[in-house]
Predict the structure.
Amino acid sequence: MTGVGGRTRPALRDRLAGHSVVVTGAGTAGDGVGNGQAVARLLAAQGAAVLCVDLHGDRAERVAQAIRDAGGTAAAHAGDVRDPRAASAMVAAAVDRFGTLTGLVCTVGVGGPSSVLAPPDPDPWADVLDVNVTGALHCIRAAAPALVAAGGGSVVTVGSTAGLRHYQPGALAYATSKAALSGLTLSVAGELGPHRVRANTVVIGQVWSPMVEAAAARQPDPDGYRDRRRRSGLIPDEGTPEDVADAVAFLVSDESRWITGQSLVVDGGATLTMR
């Protein structure tokens, strides 16, 4: 399997055989591959049946079709994570299509300029928290009964190192939401652990994705901005959505059966250096 970064990884087709997973935020605008799409495609390549969920149904269908074209099992579903009824509908669709649900991966995330010193008008604080945190909660609450009924499973949320360290002014809402995800996941792990449902967060750093590329294009020096990102970690290279997918696939798989309540930092060591 050739990934986003041009690297070849083993398909491990049977690794997730028997698993069925809902991936929110699986669609990507345009021709790029975002984190959610990379996750959905890798899980399917490793044997899972995947429900690709996105606010835009056509984007979800493109990813599901790509999975089916590659010999995998996938279906598309349009849904808004901000709506608890939509979250319940996506879980019901997965169970109806695949017979069970063993995993939920929440990759949806939005940002927007938000600051303590100079609040913009309008301030996106409520919208960012609504999508990134409350949206994840809606999906987890909807999925929990199905995961318990399956005899156990895995919930994975996708956070950011913006919730661990300060990058730049103006990211108040985004940074707060990503820090909150780790706390949410820990609480979920505590409540669902007795039912053998694990919950973990993948905390990602300088990953080059279509969303980041669009943000970089708005910088005064896009090339310099990207170069600084590359050099920020102990490993002098930026991550790719497939690096995120690799971490998620491990946490969805049975290989992580005794790992829960954790925040797995995937950042090339950027949070461990002063660069």
User: Anything to note?
Assistant: The chain has a mean pLDDT of 93. The radius of gyration is 18 Å. Residues 36 and 266 are 15 Å apart (CA to CA). The chain is about 40% helix and 15% strand.
